[in-house]
Amino acid sequence: MQGNIVKIGLLGCGNVGQGVVKGIELHSNKILCKLGVTLVVSKALVQDISKERTIGGVVLTQQPQDILDDPEIEVIVEVMGGEYPAYFYLKEALAKGKHVVTANKLLLALHGTELQAIARRKGTCLLYEGSVLGGIPILRTIQHGLAGDQVKRIRGILNGTTNYILTQMVESGKGYEEALQEAQEAGYAESDPTMDVTGLDAACKLVILCRECFELEIPLEEVEIKGIQGLTGEEVAEQKRQGRVPKLVAEASVVEKSSSGPEKRREGIIAKVGVQWLSGEAILSHVSGVDNGLSLETQLAGELFWKGPGAGGLATGGAVLSDIVEIAKKVVIERSIGNAAR
Ligand SMILES: NC(=O)c1ccc[n+]([C@@H]2O[C@H](COP(=O)([O-])OP(=O)(O)OC[C@H]3O[C@@H](n4cnc5c(N)ncnc54)[C@H](OP(=O)(O)O)[C@@H]3O)[C@@H](O)[C@H]2O)c1
């Protein structure tokens, strides 16, 4: 039994892309039994076709149009990263009425609102569970689980690479450069770690979380960002003696902005990313290594907290797959309505 077949095109087939393929391979039976859908990754866009990958029968291409122009592909999954050309590809996919899933936080922080508006206009889905906190299913929890509540404050460790480096500095007494090098050797930091260590990666995720939690937009350039590069081993050792550990904390809350008169008051967001020295009483001080942690203070439920793998091809691939499943449900319903109308 195959049920309904939903074809997927991947833009990018690296860590996360291969995680998606693996997730489908592992869970296709469960998905078929629950939804009556067979998910098929038919093509994947890559730069270098000769690279070794575990992708079964997926056809690799270097031509984006092979995927974007394929009428059988209904779901485009962007896991290539970067602002361009991903932005152009996703705009084109949405304009063509395809559903889109992405894990690209930079793209979403910069262009998420515009892309979401195109998706709404075209009646398609743009989903991005993998873009924030990797394997922790936080966006759907905010959208559905907290639909009856209101988040007042966001506070979290949103970047696993810097958390690993800081944990190494505390636990092994290493200096910043040495801890960074170790993170690179262990595969937790990229060869160019700029986005992580400057705090930009965490800031992108904070922008997305603000959109979801507050339904307000904060431009990325308005987030106050300070990374971990200036930290010294001596400073960390001294604070450790006083019972405090450094954490790269991203936090945001809504404030009422007053301009010239009370009638001009409107809501805005204060958002920042920077190193904070936390004592053992702070819940975030116990989020160590590559883990991420998020605390949301809500009006009705009070403080809620999540901790878990914030990155990794399989964990993030699973989050991306949860979006694909969500879309597949919609596609199947639309097909059955279409069949009934014929
Ligand atoms: N890795 C994680 O743990 C994680 C977690 C959360 C979110 N994300 C996000 O997920 C996305 C993918 O991350 P990743 O770790 O999977 O990256 P990656 O391993 O570097 O994979 C990127 C893939 O995209 C392809 N690609 C890049 N630029 C391309 C271009 N211009 N044309 C055609 N193909 C191109 C690469 O092709 P080649 O293989 O031929 O080089 C590669 O297959 C990023 O937006 C990242 O921020 C990653």
Describe the structure.
The chain has 342 residues and is α/β, with parallel strands linked by helices. The protein folds into two domains: 4-135 and 315-341, 3-Layer(aba) Sandwich (Rossmann fold); 148-307, Dihydrodipicolinate Reductase, domain 2 (2-Layer Sandwich). It contains eleven helices and twelve strands. The strands form two sheets. It has a six-stranded parallel sheet with strand order 3-2-1-4-5-6, sandwiched between helices. Helix 1 packs across helix 11, helix 4 runs parallel beside helix 9 and helix 6 (160-172) packs across helix 7. The chain is globular and about 70 Å long. The two termini are 24 Å apart. The mean pLDDT is 95. Bound molecules: NADP nicotinamide-adenine-dinucleotide phosphate. The site of NADP nicotinamide-adenine-dinucleotide phosphate has 25 residues, from helix 1 and helix 11. This is Homoserine dehydrogenase. The active site is at 205 (proton donor). Residues 12-129 form the Aspartate/homoserine dehydrogenase NAD-binding domain. NADP(+) binds at residues 12-17. InterPro entries: Asp/hSer_DH_NAD-bd, HDH_cat, HDH_CS, HDH_short, NAD(P)-bd_dom_sf.
Proportion of residues in β-strands: 15-25%
Shape: globular
Major β-sheet, in short?
A: 6 strands, parallel
The span between the termini is 24 Å
Radius of gyration based on Cα positions: 21 Å
Arrangement of strands in the largest sheet: 3-2-1-4-5-6
Unique ligands: NADP nicotinamide-adenine-dinucleotide phosphate
CATH class of the largest domain: Alpha Beta
Pfam family, one: Homoserine_dh
EC number: 1.1.1.3
Binding site for L-homoserine: 190
Binding site for NADPH: 105
